[in-house]
Automatic annotation (TrEMBL):
Belongs to the glycosyl hydrolase 28 family. It comes from Rhynchospora tenuis. The lineage of its organism: Eukaryota, Viridiplantae, Streptophyta, Embryophyta, Tracheophyta. Keywords: Cell wall, Cell wall biogenesis/degradation, Glycosidase, Hydrolase, Secreted, Signal. It is an enzyme of class 3 (hydrolase). This is endo-polygalacturonase. Residues 1-21 form the signal peptide. It catalyses: (1,4-alpha-D-galacturonosyl)n+m + H2O = (1,4-alpha-D-galacturonosyl)n + (1,4-alpha-D-galacturonosyl)m. GO terms for molecular function: polygalacturonase activity. One of its GO terms (biological process) is cell wall modification involved in abscission. PROSITE patterns: POLYGALACTURONASE (PS00502).
């Protein structure tokens, strides 16, 4: 562990020599505030009418019994307060057991802050569940922060996953923290641990910031994606540590204008656009920028994955300033993705993949193929650019590319190159 950490620190140091820092700082620096887009929750300056609703005052006991009713009561009061700014407070140093809970909007208050200083814990039984553990729905100008921890008690769900026990049928487990149709949302300074399935989902949200989040689940935990975006627009994700059993960040259909900045990912499956186009569906993802990321021991680095038979596009996607440490597929586009018990068959339509750039991506690969473009024969990848790439295998200190149905353009120094065929 220590040696790995030292190695990692050393590599980060080497990589950062002369470049800006790739490791998120745990403090919310003035710099990151200055860079924050202006779309997050607006406070009303000089407002003394910041009403605080403490869950303890609504009967929360933090004694291992279910505190859901107290949280509901405090939310109703905070959400429907006539004060401009209200705070729902979860006090520090306490652990509240919560059964699945929805925080519904719209609210009367102009903005609501949920300050989670203490810990929230999910019950470790699987009865009486929905597809979420904690869900915010239809809330505008919402801030969720506080330095607290959400513990999804996921082990019981993982054991019952068909990916762990192959004799069991495949069923979904809840998302730990879900935001649905929220606008002007800021989620910061929280830890999510051992989610039942996905840690944090943003679905049909817009003008969102997610920052200073720490997400942890074991490598073997099934489908525990870190941050998942679906139909979400104008989103910024920055300064997060994510180590989990599935994608650190996954961005699927209906999402656009997404900026991902300063992320450390590992273990996990990397940063993914997709999967898109399953079951012949139409998918649109565009304007995604992933900048400054460090991936450590992940199965993929930066990836676009689409199923055969889909429609639509993934376009205008940029990956830049990324450091890979022993990543199995550092750069990968797979238009023949198939994550199904039944083999996928050859189909003529595909989700188009175009205008994708990979710039300043360096480090080591755990396999010999570090650039892999497995594009569709009927809808080949278009306008794929590689610039300043240096990826070698951690074992052999060399590596190669596999580039099918794509003509990439290359500039700067690109190794391995797509243009010199290896076979
Ligand atoms: C707020 O008040 C409205 C109108 O009375 C009500 O419909 C809504 O359910 C309340 N919201 C909450 C969270 O209690
Ligand atoms: C919380 O715990 C810390 C460390 O145990 C202690 O210093 C602090 O006073 C406690 N805070 C409250 C509000 O109880
Ligand atoms: C996170 O929350 C804790 C507790 O509220 C606070 O002390 C700390 O300053 C916050 N950190 C950031 C980066 O906002
Ligand atoms: C897998 O599930 C089956 C059916 O529920 C059960 O009998 C078996 O003990 C499980 N195996 C493991 C390793 O948990
Ligand atoms: C894809 O996203 C768009 C925009 O949110 C939505 O209208 C459409 O229904 C989604 N398609 C699928 C297959 O989910
Ligand atoms: C595709 O459709 C089948 C049948 O409706 C369903 O079982 C399967 O989960 C779907 N696959 C995906 C990836 O949505
Ligand atoms: C392309 O991807 C498919 C599905 O993952 C795989 O079966 C196939 O071997 C890949 N082709 C190459 C050349 O890697
Ligand atoms: C790289 O990763 C592979 C498989 O993920 C592992 O077997 C190997 O020990 C790792 N190498 C280093 C140098 O960490
Ligand atoms: C790549 O370029 C060659 C030569 O211009 C062309 O024949 C081929 O069709 C192109 N392939 C793709 C996948 O665009």
């Amino acid at each position: 562990m220590t040696i790995q950490f030292l190695l990692f620190s050393f590599l980060v140091f080497l990589f950062n020599n002369g470049a800006s820092s790739y490791v998120p700082s745990q403090d919310l620096t003035s710099n990151s505030l200055a860079e924050a887009p202006s779309f997050h929750t607006r406070y009303h300056p000089n407002s003394d009418e910041q009403d605080v609703f403490n869950v303890d005052d609504y009967g929360a006991k933090a004694d291992g019994t279910d505190d859901r009713e107290a949280f509901k009561g405090a939310w109703e009061a905070a959400c429907n307060s006539t004060a401009d700014t209200t705070v729902l407070l979860v006090p520090r140093n306490k652990t509240y057991l919560l059964r699945p809970l929805v925080f519904n909007g719209p609210c009367e208050a102009k903005s609501v802050t949920v300050k989670i200083k203490g810990n929230l814990k999910a019950p470790s039984d699987r009865s009486d569940w929905s597809n979420y553990w904690i869900k915010f729905r239809y809330v505008k100008h919402l801030t969720v922060k506080g330095g607290g921890k959400l513990d999804g008690s996921g082990q019981i769900w993982w054991q019952h996953s068909c990916k762990i026990n192959r004799t069991l049928p495949c069923t979904d487990a809840p998302t730990a923290l879900m935001f649905y149709q929220c606008k002007h949302l800021r989620v910061s300074n929280l830890t999510s641990k051992d989610s039942q399935q996905i840690h944090v989902v943003f679905s049909h949200c817009s003008h969102v910031e997610a920052l200073h989040l720490t997400i942890r689940a074991p490598l073997w935990s099934p489908n525990t994606d870190g941050i998942h975006l679906t139909s979400t627009r104008n989103m910024k994700i920055s300064d997060c540590f994510i180590g989990t059993g599935d994608d650190c960040i996954s961005i699927v259909n209906g999402s656009k204008h997404v900026h991902v900045n300063n992320i450390v990912c590992g273990p996990g499956h990397g940063i993914s656009i997709g999967s898109l186009g399953a079951n012949n569906s139409r998918a649109h993802v565009s304007n995604v920028h992933v900048e400054k990321a460090t991936l450590i021991g992940t199965t993929n680095g930066v990836r676009i994955k689409t199923w055969q038979g889909g429609h639509g596009y993934a376009k205008n996607i940029h990956f830049q300033d990324i450091f890979m440490c022993n990543v199995s597929n550092p750069i990968i586009i797979n238009q023949n993705y198939c994550d199904s018990k039944i083999p996928c068959y050859q189909q003529n339509s595909a989700v188009a993949v175009r205008e994708v750039t990979f710039k300043n991506i360096r480090g080591t690969s755990a396999t010999d193929i570090s650039v892999n473009f497995n594009c569709s024969s009927t809808v080949p990848c278009k306008h794929i650019e590689l610039e300043d790439i240096s990826l070698v295998s951690s074992d052999t200190f060399t590596s190669s590319s596999s580039c099918i149905n794509v003509n990439s353009t290359e500039s700067g120094s690109v190794f391995p190159s797509c243009n010199t065929k290896r076979n």
